[in-house]
Inverse folding.
């Protein structure tokens, strides 16, 4: 109990310092989109076009690192996704929201080669990766943090991180150092079995593991699921900072309001199909989106 | 605070079996002490020398090491490949035959036909005395045999995987279990075909091969000592491999969570290959070492040992390597010390009774829930 409390205290301290970080972050995001406007004019234009309604155009211009077109996918014979388009630009922070069973997680799993691919294309940094094995997708620079069971419980914290770099010939000590810098509590718990950590700490181990190869794109499946409420905003702060350091993020999140507030762009997915796409704050301000998916 | 005592008595009331089992255990302990002191206690009385108790315990440890060593592979295939491998016992036999065949060739002079030697005396009339394989007279041959037992069994285990289990990789544990029973029969009767079905002596006898430990009245045989040293060395090697190498860590990771291992980029097939090589090799080595202890060999001894190996692995917590070792020692010691009270024909029953008792009160096994690959 006492160690948990201590850890929680440390976390809250972090959150405290982040509180200022958030403000600058949101500002920075605002600036980002403006400066990116040169290349992102398409999105911005869409945003402007449909000022009152949330946008319905789902694709960016030419600079997306992840480009999903007309994707059909599912599990075995069961089709979940139907004609899904989705883009993530370099360094962009994109969230997918929508009701339960909309196929949000399926999009991510399909990018990672974990579902039955049916039709369409998934391009990452210019190469088609649909149907590739996860190992190959990792090599190309995509990291994935699943929603549950995302650490090796019997392995120590450090061993969990080392497994994240399994495909390299040697353990990249500088990456481990960077992750310890990002999540200082993990350095303290280095030798402890990951299964004995608290939920928030396990989530950090899981993110650390996925960041070991310094991916260009990080897929996060419900990162706030199962966290104590006071740790949720701390977790979102950490994700903001990962994004600030240049890693593009594609996130599925149950906590849709918070996710849309934080992200650059959001996709609303319903019944396995695109419904709305726009800047997070535009979606958040849209009456239809609010009423249908954000609980008013 | 005041609730602790009622809870204890309450839990005892909830589990009358535990009370009975504990009382029975205590009774046996009292009887054991009485026997040692030489006091007659009722019909089960009788006296027991410390020497006999000591040698019972020591024999139990030695057999336990064999069972534990063999159990490591069984536990590994269970945790990494998700099935109970019934062909494991026949890998134990295979290691014994191939290892001793080569050990004989190295140990014996050139006047004995090599065919008789390689088949572990299935052909020809050479006696163990003629061949003279004993750790004191031909230590090199015994060591070579151990290496051969490990290597050949490891390769055969891998070959069996490629031929039978790999095509079934995505099937359920039950399908694989049934397939492994088929593989067990194939291996067992191939061994019988090549090596014959007769039970025969293997090790030569050498004078003064016992080391006496005076104060305990314990006499330790050179072969028992060799077995213990080799088994413990192999266990430590396995421990080191699992805990301190990249491949070993990946094996533990895969035992922990296969889906996560996949998305982490751990190459599953390479880990599976390592699992068969190590698990099979240890099975072969344990069979070879068991013959060192028994002095005899027959084509189905590994199959007969498999039940005890399963008991040890389940007792220790199936899937745990350290549980397999601990379970092996418990089963081994119960196996030999139970003869103090019951005829030795029933000592396997005693081993299983203890396994069942432990599982009644700790269903996950001694090391269960502590996943260690």
């Amino acid at each position: 109990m006492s160690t948990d409390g201590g850890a929680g205290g440390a976390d809250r301290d972090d959150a405290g310092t982040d509180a200022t970080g958030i403000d600058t972050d949101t500002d920075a995001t605002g600036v980002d989109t403006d400066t990116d406007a040169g290349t992102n004019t398409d999105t911005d234009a869409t945003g402007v076009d449909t000022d009152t309604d949330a946008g319905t155009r789902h694709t960016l211009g030419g600079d997306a690192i992840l480009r999903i077109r007309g994707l059909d996918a599912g599990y075995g014979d069961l089709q979940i996704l139907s004609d899904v388009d989705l883009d993530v630009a370099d360094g962009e922070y994109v969230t997918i929201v929508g009701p339960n069973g909309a196929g949000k997680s399926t999009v991510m799993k399909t990018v990672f080669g974990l579902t039955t691919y049916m039709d369409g294309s998934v391009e990452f940094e210019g190469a088609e990766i649909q149907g590739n094995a996860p190992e190959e997708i990792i090599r190309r620079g995509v990291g994935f943090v699943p929603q549950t069971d995302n650490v090796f419980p019997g392995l120590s914290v450090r061993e969990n991180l080392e497994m994240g770099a399994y495909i390299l010939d040697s353990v990249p000590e500088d990456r481990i150092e960077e992750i310890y810098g990002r999540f200082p509590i993990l350095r303290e718990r280095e030798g402890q079995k990951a299964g004995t950590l608290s939920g928030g700490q396990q989530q950090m181990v899981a993110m650390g593991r996925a960041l070991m190869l310094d991916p260009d794109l990080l897929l996060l499946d419900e990162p706030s699921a199962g966290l104590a409420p006071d740790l949720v905003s701390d977790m979102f702060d950490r994700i903001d900072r990962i994004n600030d350091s240049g890693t593009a993020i594609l996130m599925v999140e149950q906590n849709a309001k918070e996710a849309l507030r934080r992200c650059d762009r959001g996709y609303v997915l319903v019944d396995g199909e695109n419904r709305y796409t726009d800047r997070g704050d535009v979606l958040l301000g849209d009456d239809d989106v609010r009423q249908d998916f954000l609980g008013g | 605070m005041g609730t602790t005592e009622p809870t204890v008595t309450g839990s005892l009331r909830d589990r009358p079996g535990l009370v009975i089992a504990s009382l029975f255990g205590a009774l046996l302990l009292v009887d054991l002490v009485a026997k040692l002191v030489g006091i007659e206690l009722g019909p089960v009385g009788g006296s027991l020398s410390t020497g006999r108790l000591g040698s019972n315990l020591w024999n139990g440890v030695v057999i336990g090491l064999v069972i534990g060593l063999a159990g490591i592979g069984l536990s590994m295939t269970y945790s990494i490949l998700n099935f109970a491998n019934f062909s494991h016992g026949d890998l134990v036999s295979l290691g014994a035959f191939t290892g001793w065949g080569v050990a004989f060739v190295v140990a014996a002079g050139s006047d004995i036909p090599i065919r008789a030697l390689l088949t572990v005396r299935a052909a020809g009339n050479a006696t163990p005395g003629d061949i003279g394989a004993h750790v004191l007279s031909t230590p090199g041959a015994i060591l070579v045999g151990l290496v051969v037992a490990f290597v050949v069994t490891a390769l055969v285990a891998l070959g069996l995987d490629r031929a039978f289990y790999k095509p079934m990789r995505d099937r359920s544990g039950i399908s694989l279990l049934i397939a492994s029973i088929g593989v067990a029969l194939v291996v067992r009767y191939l061994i019988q075909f090549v090596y014959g079905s007769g039970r025969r002596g293997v090790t030569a006898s050498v004078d003064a091969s016992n080391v006496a430990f005076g104060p305990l009245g314990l006499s330790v045989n050179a072969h028992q000592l060799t077995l213990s040293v080799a088994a413990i060395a192999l266990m430590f090697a396995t421990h080191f491999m699992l805990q301190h190498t990249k491949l070993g860590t990946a094996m533990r990771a895969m035992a922990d969570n296969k889906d996560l291992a996949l998305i982490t980029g751990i190459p599953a097939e390479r880990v599976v290959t390592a699992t068969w090589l190590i698990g099979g090799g240890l099975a072969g080595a344990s069979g070879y070492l068991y013959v060192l202890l028994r002095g005899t060999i027959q084509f189905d001894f590994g199959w007969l040992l498999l039940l005890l190996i399963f008991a040890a692995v389940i007792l220790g917590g199936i899937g745990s390597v350290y549980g397999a070792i601990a379970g092996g020692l418990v089963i081994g010691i119960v196996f030999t010390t139970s003869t103090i009270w019951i005829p030795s024909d029933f000592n396997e029953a005693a081993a299983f009774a203890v396994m069942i008792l432990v599982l009644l009160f700790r269903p996950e096994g001694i090391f269960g829930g502590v996943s260690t690959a």
Observations:
- The domain at 2-293 of chain A is CATH 3.40.50.300 (Rossmann fold).
- Chain A touches chain B at residues 112, 114, 134-135, 138-139, 144, 146, 149-155, 159, 162-164, 166-167, 209 (CB under 8 Å).
- The mean pLDDT of chain A is 80.
